[in-house]
Amino acid sequence: MEETDAVQSSALTLALKVPTKHFEFPQWRTKLESVALPLGAIAVSLILFGIFCALNGANPLAVFASIKKAAFGSWYSLQNTLVRAAPLMLCALCTAIPIRLGLVVIGAEGALITGGLFATIVGLKMPGASPMSVHVAMAATGMLAGGLFIMLVGALKQYRGVNETISSLLMNYIAIALLNQSVNTWIKDPESLNKPSSFPIPDEQMLQPIELPESLGGVTSLHWGLAFGLIFCALAWFLIQKTTFGFQVRTIGANIRAARIAGLAVGPISLIACFLAGAAPGLAGMVEVAAIHGRANESLNAGYGYSGILVAFLARQNPLGCIIISVLLGGLIASGGILQRNHQLPDATILVFQGIVFILILFSESLYGRWKFFQEKSA
């Protein structure tokens, strides 16, 4: 028995044995590389996007000026940007958290739609309840639905070996089909003719806008989804970086075989992480219904989930970085209309720019460690 314990102890020591330098703070060259490569990719993206604008007959510099004005040119513009940044923060976590496990999950769009749909159903079942109780019930339902949606992706990977990227992508279409079927049949409002929708959430049960002091503008167009996004990103960073659970997640992502030898419950830990990742966009779906649309319809399928993937990669899977990138990308999305009106660019121009950035960011990942300048010199 003692011999068996000694063998297990040795295996645990070997599994968790990491060179000391792994725990050292990266030197300045490594830090510089982690900043320079993404910035370089964005700079090249701006050049290519400028060429695209020029080929469509628009002045690239004027286009960039319009984007800046529409995103951050006034207090109204900034509110518009932050409203779009809120769901991006939550959707980005759906990719940023599982990737620490070594899983590339792109199912945030489906989790947002599922969370919004089931939150709407619960809200419609509570017509006489107090607004606070309705909000809590809708939020809990949205997070539960989104969490189970992504947890299913994790379960398929862990127990059946199904590729998580493919399964999460295909499940997005299942969620869209479920939404379309629901708003066209059993929860359809007969008065919604041109745009099939569910019955509306009563006005008194909607999430009210954030009200600032009169000196700061008073009532705004901002909603509490922004606060949820900031809180969730901060909690996700703390969970991954400062807790035992986060260490276990990072250990599984770094070396799953070593994690199993060390005795970590890889399956349950992965499912919990996937559930938490899905709960964030599920809450975003609830907010989209309770604060903006007031009902479930095809507007839930607005592409925030897919844009969240870009946010996660630009932020290098750092939840705090997701906040900054979400605000920048939210401003870019908010400027789509002005580009079409003032510069006669196609309505998909912003999507073109997002695609260019995404491709180049992915390409830049292959360049890490290849530039001699960024390689640390041995002492």
3D architecture notes:
With 379 residues, the chain is an all-alpha fold. The chain has a domain at 90-302. It has 15 helices and no strands. It has helices at 2-16, 28-55, 60-72, 75-96, 108-124, 131-160, 164-184, 225-242, 244-254, 256-261, 266-293, 304-314, 319-334, 336-343, 349-365.
Q: Main attributes?
A:
globular; 379 residues; disordered N terminus; 15 helices; mainly alpha; 0% strand
Order of H and E elements: HHHHHHHHHHHHHHH
Shape, per Cα inertia axes = globular
End-to-end gap = 46 Å
Mean pLDDT: 87
Indicate the topology.
Blueprint: H1 2-16, H2 28-55, H3 60-72, H4 75-96, H5 108-124, H6 131-160, H7 164-184, H8 225-242, H9 244-254, H10 256-261, H11 266-293, H12 304-314, H13 319-334, H14 336-343, H15 349-365
Helix pairs in contact: 2-15, 3-4, 3-13, 3-14, 4-8, 4-11, 4-12, 4-13, 5-6, 5-7, 5-11, 5-12, 6-7, 6-11, 8-9, 8-11, 8-13, 9-11, 12-13, 12-15
Task: Describe, in short, the structure shown.
By secondary structure, the chain is mainly α. Helices cover 69% and strands 0% of the residues.
